[in-house]
Automatic annotation (TrEMBL):
Biased composition (Polar residues): 1-15
Database matches in CDD domains: DPM_DPG-synthase_like
Protein's UniProt name: Glycosyltransferase family 2 protein
Annotated organism of origin: Streptomyces incanus
Stretches assigned to the Glycosyltransferase 2-like domain: 34-163
Length: 277
């Protein structure tokens, strides 16, 4: 992860070709970035998703969950080089794992296909990673974040479950059940994702802590789903998340082996994020 950040001077743009990939007038990166989008019947939402994706990303991997509409055709029209992968199993966790395995980039970004995520925020996630973080975790409740799509019950449940994870695993998260995250590809070897449902995000957040990886929270704004209805069910999925927490809590050996440092906040990363946001 060396030589990944190349600042540009005020009167000099980053190189358009060669080793570095221009991100903004003050930032260029070397590592290729893959964006994974799990989608099932999201043809109406994809135009909103793709129009916010930065043109400097290396690849878009669309995981099609056996859509019955023209999701795949729309994706190819919007992003001709999109890599379409067919999901053979079921569930968001299975879709993400399928997409991760198809990625060729050094950095992987998870983006939902319902239009709730702003692709323009990807630069903040990538900046945190190239500045030293292993895992850039989106947060709707960090300073600068927000959400238009959470009921009181969901907010309360998320807060309670987040508090349990923080107490039991020594994390300092402000948000737990959010699917907008980015990480270095090597992290996959250390967190071993083995669940198939929506609880995959919680599992990732717990296992990166247990693995001693450096985590940086990124303020993110969640917008309303544009078309269609969500498959989330607050009570059902809340119990599934709780089951993951209890299951991970039962094995403390990996947690005791993690390094005794605080990977979750870095003034340097805050400075970098502030400069590029």
């Amino acid at each position: 992860m060396s030589s990944v950040l190349q600042p540009a001077t005020a009167d000099q743009n980053p190189p358009a070709t060669g080793k570095y990939r221009p991100v903004s007038s003050h930032l260029a990166i070397a590592p290729p970035v893959s964006v994974v989008i799990p989608a099932m019947n999201e043809a109406e939402n994809l135009p909103y998703v793709f129009k916010t994706l930065p043109d400097w990303i290396h690849e878009v991997v669309l995981v099609d969950g056996n859509s019955t509409d023209n999701t795949v055709e729309v994706a190819r029209e919007l992003w001709p080089d999109v890599k379409v992968v067919e999901q053979r199993g079921k569930g968001k966790g299975d879709a993400l794992n399928t997409g991760f395995q198809a990625c060729t980039g050094d950095i992987i970004v998870m983006v939902d296909a319902d239009g709730s995520a702003d692709g323009n925020e990807i630069v903040s996630y990538v900046s945190a990673l190239v500045s030293g973080a292993d895992f850039a975790k989106g947060s709707r409740f960090a300073n600068g974040g927000g959400t238009d799509d959470m009921t009181f019950i969901r907010k309360l449940g998320n807060r309670i479950l987040c508090g349990v994870v923080n107490r039991k695993f020594g994390a300092r998260y402000t948000d737990l059940c959010y699917g907008y995250n980015a990480f270095w590809r090597h992290c996959l070897d250390k967190i071993d994702l083995d669940c198939t449902g929506f609880e995959v995000e919680t599992l990732m957040n717990i296992r990166v802590v247990k693995a001693g990886l450096r985590v940086q929270e990124i303020p993110s704004h969640e917008y309303l789903r544009i078309h269609g209805t969500s498959n989330l069910r607050a009570v059902r999925d809340g119990f599934r998340v709780l089951g993951v927490i209890l299951g991970e809590r039962s094995n403390r050996r990996a947690l005791r082996r993690r390094p005794h440092h605080s990977p979750h906040h870095s003034p340097l990363l805050d400075t970098v994020r502030g400069k590029v946001s």
